[in-house]
Amino acid sequence: MKYLLLLFVSLMIVNAQSLFAQEQITDEELKKYVVAMDSINDMKASLLEEIGEMVKANEGLTNARYNELSKIMNDEAKLAAAKATPEEIAFMKQVAAKKSEGTAEITQTFQLLAKEYVGAASFNKIKKALTTDPELKSKYQSMLDELEKSEVN
């Protein structure tokens, strides 16, 4: 019975070590994850900037009016109540198309980076670990901050 218990405990230790080894995240994996996420964040910021520029360039539509219409764009009755002009509606559709196109590009790039650059298994492992490991999250944020600083310089 003692030997059986000893064997069981030994197997549990080996199994635990194996699981721990699988969950290890290397600095190289984390660096790739940071680069991928930074690239996606840059793409999102760029898209928002482009949309902002579109709104600013449209002399017939103030930011306040754009914000008002963007909230009701899919509701014909509310658009009529807000007295949206055909020009405003056409512009809002242009912006929506630009946003949709940009979002699709970001999604495609995100998937490509996750699968091909970081690796799907590593990406998922890191993403999961960031939600539960404050030390890793801190390291990730430091690496991301350092990358952003180097981009500015």
Detailed description of the structure:
The chain is mostly helical. 88% of the residues lie in helices and 0% in strands. It has helices at residues 2-23, 27-57, 63-72, 76-81, 86-132, 134-152. The protein is elongated, with a radius of gyration of 25 Å.
Note the main attributes of this structure.
6 helices; 88% helix; 0% strand; mainly alpha; 153 residues
In a nutshell, what does this entry contain?
This protein is mainly alpha-helical and 153 residues long. It has six helices and no strands.
Helix and strand arrangement:
Blueprint: H1 2-23, H2 27-57, H3 63-72, H4 76-81, H5 86-132, H6 134-152
- State mean pLDDT (0 to 100 scale): 88
Helix and strand element order: HHHHHH
| Secondary structure: number of strands | 0
Describe the sheet with the most strands. none
Q: Supply the helix-strand structural class.
A: mainly alpha
Rg, alpha carbons: 25 Å
Q: How many helical stretches?
A: 6
Unreliable stretches covering 5 or more consecutive residues: 14-22
Give the percentage of residues in beta strands: under 5%
Shape field:
elongated
Terminal-residue CA separation: 67 Å
